[in-house]
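worker-3 :: picked SojC2
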Amino acid sequence: MLLIDLDDNGHTTFNLGYRDRYEGENHVQNVLLDGEDPSDFIVPVVEDLDLFPSHEALEEVETDLKSAMASSQRLFRNVVDPLLGDVYDYIVVDTPANRGKINDNALFATKNLMVPLRPESGWESGITQTNKRLIQEAQQYFDLRLLALVPTDLSERLDQDTQDRNLLQAINSRDALEPFVPNFAHLSESDWEALDAGEYNDELPGIRHRASIDKAHRARTPLRDFDPQCDQLEYYDELAQIVEKGGVVR
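worker-3 :: tokens ->
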């Protein structure tokens, strides 16, 4: 699998130990605008996982893409099309939340989207704007599929009025959102009744905050290798299955 980091904050690149690539030669410019071979800038992470790192000058790339021919198709033409299938079975792109040419390139190249949702102020307007300004607009030009809405970094009680509860209730109760909620975050009315009565015995829904996840980041090691016993790994496995199947399957 190839992971392409196009988020200008470079967190994924840093966490995987390639800060030097983030601060070095502008390889993103070289590939997207100059047409150089992406394989020259791909680095290994662990077995079966490679990384195309982010770069600190992505704002310059964003600006230059605006005047380039076929500006929203560069990632597909120069990276995804030549590598997907022949070299990699899967290519995942990490992008910034803001709209722009880099984001447009990621959407056109992958044509599939997963949206992480943190239980913080503004998540509701965020998913509304993502749907209106990214998904619906892109769907006017090509087939873009929303694969999943992923509640993540949850840590609060669900039997009280918390942001975690409000997020989970909202996405599970709205007809437009519920089909995209992974099974590990899906709650029925009877589940909520059991939670409020103190009788809920299943695993807590959503990807929960775990110290081992943060420690794995700091150790620049995939979670599966850092803590093979982490109880959240099965949820990441379901996300992989969603990618394979093209959506959530109840």
